Every structure is written in C-alpha cells, then in structure tokens.
Amino acid sequence: MWCLARIGCRANIQLSLDSETISTSHVISSLAPPNLAPLVSDIRFPDSPRTSVGVVSLVFPVPPSQIHPEGFGYLIPRPSDPRTNPSGILGVVFDSTALPGLDTIDGVTKLTIMMGGPYWSSYQPRLPRPANADDLVPLALEHVRSVFPATRDLEPALVLRSLHKDCIPTYTTGHAARAKALQQEIAGSEWNGRLSLVGNAFAGVGVNDCVWSAERMVDALAEGRSVTGLEAWA
C-alpha cells in the first residue's frame, strides 16, 4: 500500500509505503488510471473500459516433438458465435519452441493457454467469467486435450494459473482527444516535469507498445527532457 503527496511546487514528491517514505523529484507511473487518480488528486485521469484475461501454464513430462510441431503457437479467430468456443480460448503459446535456444530444460513441454478477454466482456452472447484462477485449469486442459491427442493420457507435471482482472483497456472513440487533454493538463500543472506515464492505459495495450514507450521515456529523461509519456497525442 502506498500513497503519493506533493509538498509545494518545488518540494520533492513523497512516496509513502507501508514501511518507509521515499522522497523523489520525479515519478514514472505504470498504474492504471483508477489506481493512480486517488494518489494525484489534482489531475483528472480518463480511463477506458477494461477486460480480464486468464492465463494457464502447463508443463508436460514429455518433449515437445511428442505433442506439437515447432513454432510459436496459434491464435483462434473471433467466432461468429462465441458459444462455439465455450472455454473462451484466445490462443496457445508453445513456450518450449517459441524462442529457440532460450529454454534450458530438456524433455518437457511447456504451454501457455490464454482465455477470456472479449469473450467475457464484449462478444455476444457473453461467456461467464470464472470466479477464480483455479476455475481456469479445467478449461485449459479441455482445450489442450482436444487439440493435442498426445496429452489426453498425460497429467501435467506443473500447473500455474492466474486471473488478471481488468488488465487490458479497450480504447474507445475519443481516446486520442482524452489523452491529448491529459497531456496538456499535466504540462500546465505543477506536475509538469515531475510525472510521466507508462503502461497500457494510453499509448498502446500490447507488450511491444509498453516496452517501446518506456524506452522512449527513459531516453528522453536521460537527455534531460521533460516528458509525460503522452507526447504522441499532443
């Protein structure tokens, strides 16, 4: 638990954590707008509708060649009727072969199954979202066993599951104008040069977008430039 407070326009920013208080001159925030807004009460942070995603990682005690072809994995196209994909599976990543040379564990197959997203939020008829991460596992196993026959008589040696609630924003009409207005509001306030935003809330929801925008921000700050992270919309 932490909070953020500003003491005067020239004083440092105080970050109050559970165990300590940190004083700094600049904050880079990757928090979602609903989480950041209470900490910076004098700035209005617009938000987008958000969707949840479930992720299950399975490790089978046989080499990948016995289960799937080499490759990165696959995505499932949007169905005309979501009920034809009752588990709401988005795609599967072949972790053991997705990045050749990276995996150092021989003799096992690692798969990551992604599900939910628009199946739980915008596709109609909408599928019910599982109540907790444990409910994701049978959905993932059912899909994997229907696609890869070699797994039907195998029990995974390791199962990891996670339900990421409201993790992906969906930019709606007017997003660019709202981001531009936020850029101007920060630039015209006492937070100018003291608050920068990264993450998926404004400049792209994908991992590549987040990494790219963060790198640009760090480069700009290292050069002594004042950036909010919203310059693309200015």
The biggest sheet amounts to: 5 strands, antiparallel
Strand content: 15-25%
CATH topology of the largest domain: Polyamine Oxidase, Chain A, domain 2
Let me know the number of strands: 10
The end-to-end span amounts to 33 Å
**Poorly predicted spans:** 5-10
Q: Estimate the global geometry from the Cα principal axes.
A: elongated
* Radius of gyration from the alpha-carbon trace, in angstroms: 22 Å
CATH architecture name of the largest domain: Alpha-Beta Complex
Q: In what order do the strands lie side by side in the largest sheet?
A: 6-7-8-5-9
Roughly what is the average pLDDT, rounded to an integer?
A: 89
Count of helical regions: 6
- Estimate the helix proportion, in percent: 10-25%
- Indicate the structural class: alpha+beta
Order of helices and strands: EEEEHEEEHEHHEHEH
Look at the structure and give the CATH class of the largest domain. Alpha Beta
CATH-defined superfamily of the largest domain = Protoporphyrinogen oxidase, mitochondrial, domain 2
Tell me the domain tally. 2
Show the helix and strand layout:
Layout: E1 3-6, E2 13-16, E3 21-24, E4 27-29, H1 33-36, E5 50-60, E6 73-75, E7 89-94, H2 95-98, E8 109-116, H3 118-121, H4 136-147, E9 158-169, H5 175-187, E10 195-197, H6 207-222
Parallel strand pairs: 4-10
Antiparallel strand pairs: 1-2, 2-3, 5-8, 5-9, 6-7, 7-8
Structure overview:
- By secondary structure, the chain is of the alpha+beta class.
- The protein folds into two domains: 3-48 and 171-233, FAD/NAD(P)-binding domain, CATH 3.50.50; 50-169, Alpha-Beta Complex (Polyamine Oxidase, Chain A, domain 2), CATH 3.90.660.20.
- The protein is 23% helix and 25% strand.
- It has six helices and ten strands.
- Strand 2 and strand 3 form a beta hairpin.
- Residues 5-10 have low confidence and may be disordered.
